[in-house]
Hints:
Blueprint: H1 10-22, H2 25-32, H3 36-50, E1 55-58, E2 61-64, H4 66-82, H5 89-101, H6 104-111, H7 115-129, E3 134-137, E4 140-143, H8 145-171, E5 178-183, H9 191-202, E6 207-212, H10 215-223, E7 229-233, E8 243-251, E9 254-258, H11 270-274, E10 279-280, H12 286-297, E11 307-308, H13 312-320, E12 326-328, H14 334-338, E13 342-347, E14 354-361, H15 368-385
Parallel strand pairs: 5-6, 5-7, 10-11
Antiparallel strand pairs: 1-2, 3-4, 7-14, 8-14, 9-12, 9-13
Amino acid sequence: MPMNPLDLNIRHLRAVAAIARSGSITSASRVVNLTQPAITQGIAKIERQLGVPLFERRPAGMEPTEAALMLVPRIEAALRLMDAPHATAAQISAFLAVARSGGYAAAAVATGLSEPSLHRAVGDLSLVIGQSLVERRGKGIVLTSRGIQVARGFRLAEAELRSALAELAMLQGREVGKIVVGAMPLSRARLLPSAVAEFHRRYPGTAIAVVEGSHTELVGPLRDGEIDVIVGALRTARGDDGLISYPLFEDRPVVIGRAGHPLARAVLTPQAMAAYPWITAGRGTPLRAQWEAMFEAVGVPAPDVPIECGAVIMIRQILRESDFLTLLSPDQVAVELEAEWLAKIADAPGDVARTIGFTTRADWRPTPLQKQFLDVLQAQALEIASGV
């Protein structure tokens, strides 16, 4: 079972970074406010937990090993993100459990700790931070605005330490770790399944978790470090949003209807398309904007949309049982098109296209295996773009 990164003592991790930078336990003891014997014992404990030596003891001082040089940048990033020099790993773990579970009772079930222990740990953490992190709301609790900020920093710090453990495992010749991918609707049809299957063939020891959702549902967990990368139709990024997007290929949706739809046998005009009912994603989504732009490009008012839906499985069933039309990528209904349950009615009028790509945090530093996954994703995208 993978090690929980918060099983590592934070003050001892701080000591590892201080020794690596100074080359001296004496200097590190002043930085972390621990005695030299306490630091020596702490380093020995961390080395046992990690299963690798971190320093070579030499007359001139402590020389960091390759494992330490790999670990220290992750430790320093995690400590910056925590921004709580006196917080303990137990306090952070308790607070994150409460934040994720939405209450002390649920957190107690999830962690196996008693509710009084969780209350005490979160209360002590609030004192360390100097501000209240949770507040009672009716019969439950919610995070304060400061609590939300602190929780995000802790989650990102936890993600940094988890990446450190994965990198150390690779150094020991073990392909372990976990990649968490946020899958927006368009990526689920072909791109992501192909990439996940190919990556698993190459690295069977690495777990992959695919979290489905809309951009709105996935972007919060991405910012919190609970998702590594989101794949799907790119949104316009602001310069201050802390995210960065990478385009992969252009997807061109087409007009889809049932096999035998009246428009499949008629002379197709924009006016004829506007005369039929449409089912599209809700307002504010890229595809809905593209649908509206499609009619605007040909000077025809967009028709009313009696059904708004973003779930492809529901859309394709409604299409099969009615004369509704929709705008979708052919990849999303490839099986239905091949089986001739649905049909491509027409190419979308105008320049209708979506940029498909992936989005990460701007400060994200992927592990070697995460980089390999992105390489596989890009290779699969090239095949799709080239029509393979």
